[in-house]
């Protein structure tokens, strides 16, 4: 459990028991046992042992109304005694552990073994002077050079370069982990909670909450600590994260006052006294129990189980709460139940992200080709050597020559492995990670806090955005601009004297009392600014109306404080209204009600007239009011709120639980038109989206006229276009059949034209998102982004490909269900996210284009060179250096290109478009041809051109030749200049465009060039290099520069000529099955998807992703280096057919090695490219 083991905690607690909690009236253990009770048991225990909640507050030295005084010494004492509100995080991996992990790479292990054998054998000399002759060609020329002593250098150099690769990989992982932890703590600092201290309500970071604090809880909160309810209104809690019960639990101070950390407030509001924090809270205790299994953490699915009543539950994690810095671990007891549970629970799954699916496939395809080439290379070399020595020259195999022969074989083996190393793109996962991590870091500046790494890249493929209206498209500063009081429609807020005094009095009271007391209007932060609105914005608009009418709401609230409110019916998505009951001095009751005008007016039977007297309100009056008042307001883009009241007799007391009768027969006081102006930058952002091929739809709870008016202002709809604006009722009528079931065909008729969905319920939003995602009528599967802020948006956010939660207005529940948090609640930040997402995709493509060119050339050169001259023109160490520039440095240079506006001028790529476009294929082949021509010319005619000794057919251990050095140097120069070409992948001509905006790129290119000079001039034997003079250097650079010219030539060839090779890395239809078909027996599902969950795991998921990507390369290498390709085929034929389906539709980071064993990708990879059906 991180740095402190459980025993430390308990030991501390035990020590404090003795002196009864150092002056406080209850110890940690007493509070812990109290919190384990539920319902009436808890109420009885509180009464008996503590004298009720008040008694508990006294013992904890806190006031139920004023809270703690907030003196620092007192707070520190409480923290020391009752613990801090956080759970110590798991220790990060040390650098050495990361080095050890990097060393596990199979290719590196093979290289190390080969290098060690080569080292060992280089020190062996055959006995007797004659040995040399009798072993024939094998030892020829070695002694004469006096170089035999230098035989060890190659082995040592390979080992050294392996060390370099390992250190670079480990350092990358380490910095990545550091970044994730930074982001994680940022997410945690974001979460604040309302606490009363010194009778002031303040926002406090969750980690600073202490035992004895009085916390204010409201709809949408995620509770940061355990507590006992002091007073609550209509409070309902979702405790499924702890108990697994999905029904909401009603909480009341006299029935069930126990509130537990990590649970969600689904309705109502209230105040609680905090009794347990951090490891002593209920969620904390569970995590401490699970702490025992921390070593297994890597292997377990990131999933937490608590075992209660012998039945396995999953624990949902609270989002970003510093309170719960928990690592998910597997409970020891939960292990068995775990397996069974897994099959039973149907999991809402996310598919592998688009890019990942394509990359997995590509990596497997490339890996296989590389393996094949390296195997053939080794076989040809060995055969050639054997035939030449033992058949052609009829030499006997002498025992004393064996080590020399073995040395040759080891050399061949090393060449083979190097071909493999160069062929397999280890740089891919690295490029993806760097690109994503870099984007995520930069997106922070653009107000996007990314919680799931892959969301960033998925966003680049988005084809539809379903956006909320309030706060996202609008400023979320509600101001009342029109009202209808006493039969008069005022287009501006009237002078208070113009209103009937009775109506005015009722209106002021109705607004002041019937709104959350946490909603306030505070003076502006800076001079001349607008007043600060705190709490629910609609209520702020109404309170603003009170202030505009020259009255103040605060004295009225002070007169009737929150605890004196008799009954509160809080706002929820079903009621769409809020009502508060107060007891009048004469013992009778009055209920104030407010809500959406069409809903509240339906319940009104009277209305106040011009003198403030109630008159009968007939149905035809209602229709007239709707036509004359409500519709004109709505057409101006106003939200209409109706305020009403009703009086009840004190005797007999009404049955408050009979909501339908209570909330009827109201008297309307007034209708207020509230404006929420469109954010100035939104119309421009929406236009950019539409240009980029993304459809923006508005889904709002407002009425249809308001919604349409705002949609026109935003530019979502343009007059004269063919589009649909419908409300929830009409939407449901169109998409449901007679039985009331949703039908996909019906949704398909609606969604393509739908632009505005008004008066929609959360279920409508979810139905719409699901309908668009599951639709098969368009050839590309739609990728949908959704914005949401309310608790009820959770399901839609979870279902969407990318869920955006509002950082300011959003509830904790919404943030927890989301992938990206918009820290400024602004729609234009979503456009930035699209830009970054597309940039990630392009960066990977740039890297691929560069990498594959090098791969193709290096493999072909090593292969043909080996077959013709028995020695690869590029030596093992040189290949490793090339691999280092290609993989590590190039991924850094190309993955950090900043995005440009031009990214938004093209349509999304879509899921079925191959990763390697035809333009890229053309570039790869074109540059490959150029490089091969140059290298082979140098290899076979270089000695004549430069008038130097030929380096071909040199014996073992001969000194490096100038000839081969020129080939190596030219090869590297061509790569360097091709890296500049790779900056553009859409066939643009100006490859230098914006090159200085990317300092990393420039420094890497110059750095590599400098290193190359050092290697060639001073590398000597280890790098098999002979220093070159200036003229030869100029030639090498000149041939490299040719790449840039050749790039322009390639850009002139039209793509239409290159119909073949279209489909590398394409996802075939078969890989893309809908999620419903997944066979539930399949164990390969990653359970991280199972729960909505807190930020930090999401970051670890990033790390996981990288491991999996490297795994593919490893699985592939290990599966083949030892068993040969046959094993692969066997494996694939025995794989059950069910895996076909799960390949892509399982959660976003399925172990990529499945892809290997699944028939789909195996066949797709080995068969000719035509298998990808478009």
Automatic annotation (TrEMBL):
Keywords: ATP-binding, Calcium, Calcium transport, Calmodulin-binding, Cell membrane, Ion transport, Magnesium, Membrane, Metal-binding, Nucleotide-binding, Phosphoprotein, Translocase, Transmembrane, Transmembrane helix, Transport. InterPro entries: ATP_Ca_trans_C, ATPase_P-typ_cation-transptr_C, ATPase_P-typ_cation-transptr_N, ATPase_P-typ_cyto_dom_N, ATPase_P-typ_P_site, ATPase_P-typ_TM_dom_sf, ATPase_P-typ_transduc_dom_A_sf, ATPase_P-type_domA. It holds the Pfam family Cation_ATPase_C. Residues 298-323, 328-347, 1127-1174 are annotated as: Disordered. Its EC number is 7.2.2.10. Residues 1157-1174 have a biased composition (Low complexity). It is a multi-pass membrane protein. It catalyses: Ca(2+)(in) + ATP + H2O = Ca(2+)(out) + ADP + phosphate + H(+). CDD domains: P-type_ATPase_Ca_PMCA-like. GO terms for cellular component: glutamatergic synapse; postsynaptic density membrane. GO terms for molecular function: ATP binding; ATP hydrolysis activity; calmodulin binding; metal ion binding; P-type calcium transporter activity; PDZ domain binding. PROSITE patterns: ATPASE_E1_E2. Residues 299-319, 337-347 have a biased composition (Basic and acidic residues). Belongs to the cation transport ATPase (P-type) (TC 3.A.3) family. Type IIB subfamily. This is Calcium-transporting ATPase. It comes from Xyrichtys novacula (Pearly razorfish).
């Amino acid at each position: 459990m991180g740095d402190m083991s459980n025993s430390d905690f308990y030991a501390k607690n035990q020590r404090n028991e003795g002196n009864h909690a150092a002056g406080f009236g209850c110890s940690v253990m007493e509070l812990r046992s109290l919190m384990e009770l539920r319902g009436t048991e808890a109420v009885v225990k509180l009464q008996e042992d503590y004298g009720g909640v008040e008694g508990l507050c006294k013992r904890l030295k806190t006031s139920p109304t004023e809270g703690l005084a907030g003196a620092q010494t007192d707070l520190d004492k409480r923290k020391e005694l009752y613990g801090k509100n956080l759970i110590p995080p798991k220790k990060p991996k040390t650098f050495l552990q990361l080095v050890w992990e990097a060393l596990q790479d199979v290719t590196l292990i093979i290289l190390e073994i080969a290098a060690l054998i080569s080292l060992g054998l280089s020190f062996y000399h055959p006995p007797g002077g004659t040995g040399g002759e009798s072993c024939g060609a094998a030892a020829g020329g070695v002694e004469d050079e006096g170089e035999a002593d230098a035989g060890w250098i190659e082995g040592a150099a390979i080992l050294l370069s392996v060390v370099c690769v390992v250190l670079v990989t480990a350092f990358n992982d380490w910095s990545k982990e550091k970044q994730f932890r930074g982001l994680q703590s940022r997410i945690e600092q974001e979460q604040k909670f309302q606490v009363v201290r010194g009778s002031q309500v303040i926002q406090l970071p969750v980690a600073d909450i202490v035992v004895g604090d009085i916390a204010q809880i409201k709809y949408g909160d995620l509770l940061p600590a355990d507590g006992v309810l002091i007073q609550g209104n209509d409070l309902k809690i979702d405790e499924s994260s702890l108990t697994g019960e999905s029904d909401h639990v009603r909480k009341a101070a006299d029935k069930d006052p126990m509130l537990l950390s990590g649970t969600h407030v689904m309705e109502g509001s209230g105040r609680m006294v905090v009794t347990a924090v951090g490891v002593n809270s209920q969620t904390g205790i569970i995590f401490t129990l699970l702490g025992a299994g921390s070593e297994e953490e890597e292997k377990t699915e990131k999933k937490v189980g608590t075992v209660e009543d012998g039945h396995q539950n999953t624990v949902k994690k609270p989002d970003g709460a510093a309170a719960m810095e928990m690592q998910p671990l597997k409970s020891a007891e939960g292990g068995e139940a775990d397996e069974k549970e897994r099959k039973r629970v149907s999991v809402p799954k996310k598919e592998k992200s688009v890019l990942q699916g394509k990359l997995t496939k590509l990596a497997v395809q490339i890996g296989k080709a590389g393996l094949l080439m390296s195997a053939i290379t080794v076989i040809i070399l060995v055969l050639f050597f054997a035939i030449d020595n033992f058949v052609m020259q009829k030499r006997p195999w002498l025992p004393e020559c064996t080590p020399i022969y073995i040395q040759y074989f080891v050399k061949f083996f090393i060449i083979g492995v190097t071909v493999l190393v160069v062929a397999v793109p280890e740089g891919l996962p690295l490029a993806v990670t760097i690109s994503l991590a870099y984007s995520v870091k930069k997106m922070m500046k653009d107000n996007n806090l990314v919680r799931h790494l892959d969301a960033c890249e998925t966003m680049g493929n988005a084809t539809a955005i379903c956006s909320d209206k309030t706060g996202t498209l609008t400023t979320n500063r509600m101001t009342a601009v029109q009202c209808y009081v006493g039969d008069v429609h005022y287009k501006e807020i009237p002078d208070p004297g113009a209103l009937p005094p009775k109506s005015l009095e009722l209106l002021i009271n109705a607004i002041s009392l019937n709104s959350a007391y946490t909603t306030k209007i505070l003076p502006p932060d800076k001079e001349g600014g607008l007043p600060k609105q705190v709490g629910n914005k609609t209520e702020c608009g109404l309170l603003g109306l009170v202030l505009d009418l020259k009255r103040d709401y605060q004295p009225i609230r002070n007169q009737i404080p929150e605890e004196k409110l008799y009954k509160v019916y809080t706002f929820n998505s079903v009621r769409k209204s809020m009502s508060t009951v107060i007891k009048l001095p004469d013992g009778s009751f009055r209920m104030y009600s407010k809500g959406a005008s069409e809903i509240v007016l339906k319940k009104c039977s009277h209305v106040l007239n011009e003198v403030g007297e109630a008159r009968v309100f007939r149905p035809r009056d209602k229709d007239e009011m709707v036509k004359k008042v409500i519709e004109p307001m709505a057409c101006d883009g106003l939200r209409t709120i109706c305020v009403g009241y009703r009086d009840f007799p004190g005797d007999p007391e009404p049955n408050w639980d009979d909501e339908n009768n209570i909330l009827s027969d109201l008297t309307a006081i007034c209708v207020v038109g509230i404006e929420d102006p469109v954010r100035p930058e939104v119309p421009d952002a929406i236009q950019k989206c539409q240009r980029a091929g993304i459809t923006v739809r508005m889904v709002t709870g407002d009425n249809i006229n308001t919604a349409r008016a705002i949609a026109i202002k935003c530019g979502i709809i343009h007059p004269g276009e063919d589009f649909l604006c419908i409300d929830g009722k009409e939407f449901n009528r169109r998409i449901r059949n007679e039985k009331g079931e949703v039908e996909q065909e019906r949704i398909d008729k609606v969604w393509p034209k739908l632009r505005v969905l008004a008066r929609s319920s959360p279920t409508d939003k979810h139905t719409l998102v699901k309908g668009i995602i599951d639709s098969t009528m368009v050839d590309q599967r739609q990728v949908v982004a959704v914005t949401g802020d309310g608790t009820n948006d959770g399901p839609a956010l979870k279902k969407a490909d990318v869920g955006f939660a509002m950082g300011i207005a959003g509830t904790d529940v919404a943030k927890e269900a989301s992938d990206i948090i918009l820290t400024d609640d602004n729609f234009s930040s979503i456009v930035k996210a699209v830009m970054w997402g597309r940039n990630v995709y392009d960066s990977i493509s740039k890297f691929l284009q560069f990498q594959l060119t090098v791969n193709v050339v290096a493999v072909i050169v090593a292969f043909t060179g080996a077959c013709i001259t028995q020695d690869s023109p590029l030596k093992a160490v040189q290949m490793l250096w090339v691999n280092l520039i290609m993989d590590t440095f190039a991924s850094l240079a190309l993955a950090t290109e900043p995005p440009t506006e031009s990214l938004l001028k093209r349509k999304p790529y879509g899921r079925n478009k191959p990763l390697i476009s035809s333009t890229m294929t053309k570039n790869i082949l074109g540059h490959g041809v150029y490089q091969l021509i140059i290298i082979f010319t140098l290899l076979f005619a270089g000695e004549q051109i430069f008038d130097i000794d030929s380096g071909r057919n040199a014996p073992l251990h001969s000194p490096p030749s100038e000839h081969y050095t020129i080939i190596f140097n030219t090869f590297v120069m061509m790569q360097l200049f091709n890296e500049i070409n790779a900056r553009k992948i859409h066939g643009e001509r100006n490859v230098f465009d914006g090159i200085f905006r990317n300092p990393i790129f420039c420094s890497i290119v110059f750095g590599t060039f400098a290193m190359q000079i050092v290697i060639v001039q001073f590398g000597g034997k280890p790098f098999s290099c002979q220093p070159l003079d200036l003229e030869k250097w100029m030639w090498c650079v000149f041939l490299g520069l040719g790449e840039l010219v050749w790039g322009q030539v390639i850009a002139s060839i039209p793509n239409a000529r290159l119909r073949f090779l279209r489909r590398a890395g394409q996802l075939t239809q078969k890989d893309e099955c809908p999620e419903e078909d997944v066979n539930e027996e399949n164990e390969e599902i990653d359970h991280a998807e199972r729960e909505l969950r807190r930020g930090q795991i999401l970051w670890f998921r990033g790390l996981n992703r990288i491991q999996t990507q490297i795994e593919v390369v490893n699985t592939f290498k290990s599966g083949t280096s030892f068993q040969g390709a046959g094993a692969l085929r066997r494996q694939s034929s025995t794989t059950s057919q069910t895996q076909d389906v799960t390949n892509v539709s399982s959660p976003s980071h399925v172990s990529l090695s499945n892809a290997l064993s699944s028939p789909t990708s195996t066949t797709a990879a080995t068969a000719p490219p035509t298998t990808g059906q478009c």
